[in-house]
Amino acid sequence: QYPPPGELLRVMGKDDPRRGFVLNPVYADPRVHFLLSCGAKSCPPAVSIARMNDGKWESVAAEAAKNFVTDENQVRYDADSNVLYLNKIFSWYKKDFGGTEALMLLNIRRYAGEGWEVAGKIEGKTPKIKYMKYDWQPHASRIKTYSPAKSDANAFKMISSYLKTSFGRPTSRTRYAEIRQERRELEPLEKKAAEELEARMKEIQAKNEKA
Fold it and tell me: Is the pTM of this model over 0.70?
């Protein structure tokens, strides 16, 4: 059982260098949750970073949000019980989607757009919100074969392609080495955060067993 993201502790302290890459909450767009994927069955489909360049963010985000909320595997209404079942992402990041069930539902309707079938079914009603169990099993269609022998070359090509697409220039192997070094410097911080999270989870599990 995975804990709700961000619920147990702050992963990054005030001096953590990764904070520089965190979005300002004032400008953050909650639709980013429909563009990120860990490859699990309950995750949204992954979206290529290249598609979001050249001013295409709005159209790509709108499309991803609409596809997600109109998918019955992610948002489903049961008329008999008047229950609206939502993907667990809406529970974990409730604040991002408005902070209240009313505002969250309003945003979901906005993302779905005109002609959303569920909108007609819940018109004039106040459905009870329930969250689906998150399926962490890997989505078979999103799994790609990994080749250890080519891992470094593949990683270089991937990073080069991304930076070239984003900034219009190829990536030198020197810059690639710098990126790998930056990654190594972050590893101890990530390891420490993971250890703290694991210790906290064991603490909570022990309390639950006593209760």
Answer: no
